[in-house]
Amino acid sequence: MTETIKIRPYTAQDKSDCLAVFQSNAAVYFDASEYEEFAAFLDSFALQVPYYVVIKAGQLIGCGGVSDVQGVSYLCWGMVHRAHHGTGVGSLLAQYRLDLIRDQQCSPRVQIETSQHTQGFYARFGFEITEVVRNGFGEGIDRVTMVLAELRR
Length: 153
Hints:
alpha+beta, about 25% helix, globular
């Protein structure tokens, strides 16, 4: 990551770029049926909850947010354009969101619903699996619920 990376709040003008990031991850990390759900999230909730985009060299290459539901903090709709996987951008975005939860003194319980393809990534942050639903997001994409017991830097 030699170029400057900026994380800033999502704006409605970012929608098409966020959808392009989603599309770059479709079929492996997201089921096609989730596209409309993500688009609706961007239209309805992304401006209401803390939702952020990652910019590198003037291009939107990632997005992700946090929410609080009934006293539990969630990492929601986090993704990095597939061309940037393995570059550290995902770790930067995940840590940014965890720091936000801690700094805003949100619920100390943090949860994420992810897939078997990314559960190892979140395990590196201390998340532990609490439930697995086979094909929970779509054919071949399990829904893996993970909980972080303790926020850390």
